[in-house]
């Protein structure tokens, strides 16, 4: 299928239940090839669960996910090399140094030593981690850990990047550098899916977006279509609700 496939990621009826609670409820979503796709929703909306099922980290109770037309659960050995995954809350091999972690990740995808050395050096420079390359990942700050995880996701040159909260705990300068890298990746023909709580960031970066709540897609499509005449945050609050107006209790406001 290759480049003839219209969607880089196609989610069909994914469902996940935990006991009596449904975290993801028959969710379907199509991410066009070459798009920069944002996924937004309140806490507990099912974003992380959806992305984990879509990338082969968490087995769904129903439904399937296709990466460039390849079912990630039926043909994982073909699908997973196409994905660069930065999953929220997944432990890294933090007993390795930063350089070793990138190298190990590349070895999992069969990269040869010369290619690995070159790409590892490039990624450490791009993400401003050269001075930390020889330190254990366990000693990294939260922001540095996020950046080294991104480097590990990029080293095998995937076609689809799936990034769950990639800017959380990252300082503004590093965040700007990461955005530049992702922009270049998308301009070169790659596809980026990013979840974030920052409406402003998603609106600025993404050309497509989906708003998710209670395990379902409320609306999806191009950024212009979803946000309408206002901004993304306004549209999000209209659909999701829950905003409380008022001054609060008198005791809180008293001096």
Describe this structure in words.
- Pfam families: ABC_tran.
- The structure is a single chain.
- The protein has 255 residues and is of the alpha/beta class.
- The chain has one domain (2-241): Rossmann fold (3-Layer(aba) Sandwich).
- The chain has helices at residues 47-54, 76-79, 98-108, 113-126, 142-154, 172-187, 199-205, 223-227, 232-240, 250-253, and strands at residues 7-18, 21-32, 36-40, 62-67, 70-71, 83-86, 160-164, 191-195, 208-213, 216-222.
- The protein has a six-stranded mixed beta sheet with strand order 6-7-8-3-9-10, sandwiched between helices. Strands 2-1-4-5 form a four-stranded antiparallel beta sheet.
- Helix 3 runs parallel beside helix 5.
- The longest helix has 16 residues, at 172-187.
- The protein is globular, with a radius of gyration of 19 Å.
């Amino acid at each position: 299928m290759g480049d003839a496939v219209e969607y880089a990621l196609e989610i069909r009826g994914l469902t996940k239940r935990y006991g009596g609670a449904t975290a993801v409820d028959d969710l379907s979503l199509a991410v066009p090839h070459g798009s920069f796709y944002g996924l937004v929703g309140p806490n507990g909306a099912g974003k992380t669960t959806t992305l984990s099922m879509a990338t082969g980290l968490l087995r769904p109770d129903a439904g399937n996910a296709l990466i460039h037309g390849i079912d990630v659960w039926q043909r994982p050995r073909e699908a997973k090399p196409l994905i660069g995954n930065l999953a929220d809350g997944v432990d890294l091999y933090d007993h390795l140094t930063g350089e070793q972690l990138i190298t190990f990740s590349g070895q999992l995808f069969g990269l040869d030593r010369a290619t690995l050395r070159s790409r590892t050096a490039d990624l450490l420079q791009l993400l401003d981690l050269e001075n930390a390359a020889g330190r254990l990942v366990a000693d990294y700050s939260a922001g540095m850990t996020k950046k080294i995880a991104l480097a590990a996701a990029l080293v095998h040159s995937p076609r689809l990047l799936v990034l769950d909260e990639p800017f959380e705990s990252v300082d503004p300068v590093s965040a700007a550098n990461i955005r530049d890298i992702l922009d270049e990746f998308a301009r070169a023909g790659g596809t980026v899916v990013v979840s974030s709580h920052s409406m402003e960031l998603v609106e600025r970066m993404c050309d497509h977006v989906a708003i998710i709540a209670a395990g379902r897609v409320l609306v999806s499509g191009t950024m212009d279509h979803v946000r309408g005449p206002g901004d993304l945050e306004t549209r999000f609050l209209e659909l999701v609700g829950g905003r409380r107006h008022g001054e609060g209790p008198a005791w809180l406001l008293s001096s």
